[in-house]
Amino acid sequence: MSPVAELATAQLVAYNAADLDGFCACYHSDVVVLDADGKVTLKGKDAFRERYQPMFDQGQFGATVDGRLVVGPHCVEREHYSRVGVSGETVSGSVLVRYTERDGAIALVQFLR
Fold first, then answer.
1. Which residues make beta-bridge pairs with 29?
2. Cβ neighbour number for residue 98 with a 10 Å cutoff
3. CA 19/CA 78 separation, integer angstroms
4. Whole-angstrom distance, CA of residue 45 vs CA of residue 68
5. Which of 22, 43, 14 minimizes the C-alpha distance to 107?
6. What is the C-alpha to C-alpha distance for residues 16 and 101, in angstroms, rounded to an integer?
7. What is the set of domains in the chain, with CATH numbers?
8. How many C-beta neighbours within 10 Å does residue 63 have?
């Protein structure tokens, strides 16, 4: 398995286990998160942890992957997710997620909806 595929798998396992430390350990200190249009929505591991902390504290979320393409340091996955929203409603759907590995960690994430 390629390094980026290993990282993508490790972060998904940690995500589903609600292990914030394990989840964040898969990401580069300078991680950048992009939206579908390529706009930066988050930069740096501290901001990354801060974004995910409330969801991990609340629990009641998970994701599965039913497809993965890997080319060099890039991986694109089709994820199905569900979580309980702030007001108690269940939110679910599918998203393509692009990961790019650099220096042994995920350095770039892009959510394609």
1. none
2. 15
3. 21
4. 24
5. 43
6. 21
7. 3-112 (3.10.450.50)
8. 17
Contact 55, 61 (CB under 8 A): yes
- C-alpha 1/C-alpha 3 separation (Å) is 7
- Read off the tokens for 1: 């398995």
Q: What per-residue confidence (pLDDT) applies to 75?
A: 98
Residues 6 or more apart whose Cβ sits within 8 Å of residue 49: 20, 24
**Predicted confidence (pLDDT) per residue in 10-66, tens digit:** 999 999 999 999 999 999 999 999 999 999 999 999 999 999 999 999 889 999 999
User: What number of residues does the chain have?
Assistant: 113
Residue with tokens 């039913």: 66
d(CA 89, CA 76): 28
Burial of 29 (0-12, 13-18, 19+ CB in 10 A): exposed
**Amino acid symbol at 84:** V
Euclidean distance between CA atoms 101 and 81, whole angstroms: 22
